[in-house]
Design a protein that fits this description.
The chain is elongated. By secondary structure, it is mainly α. The protein is 75% helix and 0% strand. The mean pLDDT is 86.
């Protein structure tokens, strides 16, 4: 059995093709909502990263308080750690929700757009006039979507 060695190369052609796939959605009628979802996704991701930084400081302060036998400072930082963990939980949760919503909206737009192009001017009839016959074009489009 022959092993096929295929590598993804990030050359200029790749980025052109990548942008050709992305551009229609980000310039569509949904672009305002899509950009706001992208903004909130980045905001919640940065908030979660900031929470990780705050968590490391809380951990450092707890260990320093334990080392110096400072019980009041230790409990203060344990409470702060609980608040930071709650904050991070919410930030990750909202980030996941916004990211999923963006993916769902993008998928719905892509399906609607592809189907409208497929059905416009009865394009599906043109396959019968191609030199190379395409078997099951509707199934192929369904799989692509």
């Amino acid at each position: 059995m022959k092993k096929i060695d295929q590598h993804l190369t990030f050359n200029k052609q790749f980025w052109r093709s990548f942008w050709r796939l992305l551009k229609p959605y980000w310039q569509s009628e949904e672009k305002a909502f899509a950009y706001s979802l992208l903004f909130f996704n980045l905001l919640f991701t940065f908030a979660a990263v900031e929470g990780n930084v705050a968590l490391s400081y809380c951990n450092k302060n707890i260990l320093n308080a334990l080392q110096h036998f400072n019980q009041a400072l230790m409990w203060k930082n344990v409470m702060m750690m609980a608040i930071v963990i709650t904050f991070m939980f919410l930030a990750y949760g909202f980030s996941f929700y916004v990211n999923s919503l963006l993916a769902l909206r993008w998928r719905q737009w892509l399906t609607k757009n592809t189907l409208s192009q497929w059905l416009t001017d009865k394009n599906y009839y043109r396959f019968q006039f191609l030199a190379k016959k395409v078997d099951n074009p509707d199934q192929r489009i369904n799989e692509d979507i």
